[in-house]
Amino acid sequence: MDLTIEAHRHWKDLYDFIKSLGIKVSQNPGAEDMPWNIVKSIQLAPNQYLYVNFAPNSKTVFVSPQVTPVAGYLPEEYNYQKQVAVIHPQDQPIMMEAIKYAYGQLYHKAVKPFETSFNFSYRLRHKNGHYLRVLRQGMPIKYSKDGFILYYVSVVTDISHLSNDKKVYAGRSGKGMEDYDFHVDKFYKSKFLSKREIDILIMLREGLHSSEIGERLFISKHTVDTHRRNILKKLGVPSTVQLIKKAQELNII
User: Fold this and answer.
1) What CATH number does residue 97 fall under?
2) Rounded to an integer, what distance in angstroms lies between the CA atom of residue 116 and that of residue 169?
3) Scanning 47, 109, 191, 198, which has its CA 20 to 30 A from the CA of 207?
4) What tens digit of pLDDT does each residue of 30-75 get?
5) 229-232, long-range: CB within 8 Å, 24+ apart, which pairs?
6) pLDDT digits 0-9 by tens, 89-112
7) From CA 253, how far away is CA 118, in angstroms rounded?
8) Number of structural domains in the chain
9) Are residues 120 and 204 in the same domain?
10) Distance of alpha carbon 238 from its chain centroid, rounded?
11) pTM score, two decimals?
């Protein structure tokens, strides 16, 4: 899989989704329009960096210099496409869905900065190739007169020393986000795997071979093998053993 192409596809999908919300604001933001007083008031720890994006076209307008010691990237290269590309390939699909869900919940809700945030925990690729476990806290900091998000800030914290979990987490905190109820486990079941694929996963966990699964489901061994390959690809693992482990980690089975 070409990770650059895949990341661009996810970025384009999010961009199209944001446009579909009916934004009617300038597509050419300037850094001078950003609420600098809010950004400058955020105190960062040594294991944190932040960036600010312009929501209507996902343009990055500011990246703090701390991105270099934490993740290895230069501020000028850490645009939105890069922010998506550095998400672990297995985490990208669910992260983009969770972000879209949060956008949909936040539009037309002019919550105050620091009163609420939507939070994601996932794996992020350091520039030298290894992965960090990070917590990303995002919050809108400026709205248009029509109630659309203009600018939002994301604070990224390296929590690798606290967790090596491989699961994506999504949640919210504060006021104004009571309706944000994105269930990671339900996403994997409803968006990633069909009912037939989940049935096959359960039987694989029981130790059944493809021919035995085919007999139970009244399908051919070839069809079962095709489903197995598709499931392996969807969950991003190379073997059945790792597939079962991953599915259990995600509470799919």
Assistant:
1) 3.30.450.20
2) 17
3) 191
4) 555 667 788 888 889 999 999 999 887 788 999 999 999 999 999 9
5) 230/197, 231/193, 231/197, 231/200, 231/201
6) 888 888 887 877 777 666 656 566
7) 27
8) 2
9) no
10) 22
11) 0.66
